[in-house]
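Every protein is a chain of amino acids, and every chain bends into a shape of its own. The fold becomes a row of whole numbers, each drawn from a learned catalogue of backbone shapes. The protein below has been through that process, and both of its lines are reproduced in full.
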Amino acid sequence: MIIDVHGHYTTAPAALGVWRDLQIAGLKDSSKAPQASDLKISDDEIRETIENNQLKLMKQRGSDLTIFSPRASFMAHHIGDFQTSSTWAAICNELCYRVSQLFPDNFIPAAMLPQSPGVDPRTCIPELVKCVEQYGNVGINLNPDPSGGHWTSPPLSDKSWYPIYEKMVEYDIPAMIHVSTSCNACFHTTGSHYLNADTTAFMQCLTSDLFKDFPTLKFLIPHGGGAVPYHWGRFRGLAQELKKPLLEEHLLNNIFFDTCVYHQPGINLLTEVIPTKNILFASEMIGAVRGIDPQTGHYYDDTKRYIEATQNLTAEEKHMVYEGNARRVFTRLDAALKAKGL
């Protein structure tokens, strides 16, 4: 089985965006504010958006199952207050749950949290609990920068995050560390803010002893880990200077990387530097980079091609990347598959 651990509902029906625009307008003029019940999206509309997009490409490219979460750039936790984010998260998470119900063999949900700048992260717990217990979510997306590029929140090692970590450990679910839209003109959302955040999250963990407090906590750092694999020697050296254990002991029992790296040399580097047990297959298809590479004639985000072509992985190691590691890291996914006899 080929499991894609990084999928977003980027093709949701247009009505979702229209409702969000009204919600944002309502922050200035309450008379324009919509109710959640005003949003009407039929099952047929969901089927159309999935069958003609993600599912079509999954079949063409040869992947079987996608861990599916709300569109990352739409999370926009910096907009409004906690109630704004709470209503928006509930709507988006329900949509991904409906996708998983309409296509149970192809999609399983992961949740966005109703984060808001300056608001205690523990306020996200009711939505997290609902999504795990009622929707069968197998993971969450955790935004280390709800401010949208201004980095006003404490680092991931700060104890204010601990209530979320306690729930993650209780449910044995990992968090993908994923920021949202940048509202800082210095940082392009997908070209710099995302990759900056991936690198920053890794360094926040490196400089702390977070995993001593939570030995079973699991973070998935997307987009190949940002700058981490490319500068692995720098991080090893910094850990040494900070009197931290070797990275294999200090971080690699808890931190994992996906394969959303959109060229062959990048995947070659990732698979050469990072232990295979820490790499999970992903594409983030129909996401940040949707075009065709003129050098290859294939879509940039067709990452399975790169895994197949690399000389750094044996057949057994490819199985780990495609399936084994995902089932080990996302234990609720593994349980769901086993319940189906898979």
